[in-house]
Amino acid sequence: MAESWTDPANLSSALGVGAAARALEAGWLLLQAGNFSSSAPGPPVASAAPAQPRANLTNQFVQPSWRIALWSLAYGVVVAVAVLGNLTVIWIIVAHKRMRTVTNYFLVNLAFSDASMAAFNTLINFIYALHSEWYFGANYCRFQNFFPITAVFASIYSMTAIAVDRYIAIIDPLKPRLSATATKIVIGSIWILAFLLAFPQCLYSKIKVMPGRTLCYVQWPEGPKQHFTYHVIVIILVYCFPLLIMGVTYTFVGITLWGGEIPGDTCDKYHEQLKAKRKVVKMMIIVVVTFAICWLPYHLYFILTAIYQQLNRWKYIQQIYLASFWLAMSSTMYNPIIYCCLNNRFRAGFKTAFRWCPFIHVSSLDELELKTTRFRPTRQSSLYTVTRMESVTVLFDSNDGDPKANRKKRALQRDPSINGGSRRDSKSASTTSSFISSPYTSVDEYP
Q: What segment(s) does the record annotate as region Disordered (predicted)?
């Protein structure tokens, strides 16, 4: 019976954040089987001891108290900031009508998945990686192997949906935007696909109660090759493929937004919308790059330790795992910080949410940022409503009550040189300015 547990690859967790420290699990089971030796692909141990009788085995992965305290503080900060920050983002969007745009619906989905993963998995996986002991039962073992992949899939594909939406809105602005119903369908589809991808992790999750140790792991029916194949598929689907799509879309969007000014349309409304589009695209590019950087070491760790199993015997491999896992989990806390730093409305929302803090001051401008206002004309600007055929210029005059002023205004409106000359000229103006405004977009579309 002991020999059936000597292959560490059968015990390795799948990609997911889901199962902590596969090297630690494999090494412990090797110890239990009495086959641990310097040549075995076992775990890193601070002070390797010779194999002992099963009843006398002790945890070989105990760290100094000061190191445990530092890791606990680091993981605790991630969980606190991620949960509080992402819940605040959800509140800002849901509680304020002006924030309910297509992009922000996907941001809600992203914030929910990040907050859930931080709350339900980060500390559990940290404790398991630290002690190589599963304390939480069989049901939570299945959940912690299943849910992290689901949450990561939902996060990355929410970012991908935002990238595609930005691409359509900027490259083809006359195309109708996603409705609220269509956005909800897309979000629901993302979660269904995430559940299907992560389902094998739930199906094959098991706990093993051994003398002095309980383990949670994923036991694949066909062994290490099947596990490695699944691992590679997950990395492609939740990392490589979506990042490729976002890289291509944001490249085209960046060329369009920063490649040069649109000739023939220099109104203030145009510059306002162009600036808003640039801001939201810049914010989302930073979010995507942050995600890619945070998750890269974690993926590399599992690939390298699967291919070169002798790395599991390295003295500091447990610290490498804890560091790469911390960096991956820290991706859940950066997005609210990025929103707050780069977006005026989110910053106003955070100030409103934390106005009870003595050092937070909410100005009248902050309150106006979150109010529902469709148009914000300036004194010397024109407001354009653009259709496929023509554009109409509305002139705002502070002397609406003056009869003389009204007669002058009517005369101006009859003057072809003011209103664009001919229908042909009007159509030309519409074509030129279609980039900046359409029947389906307004300034409020950009958070």
A: 397-447
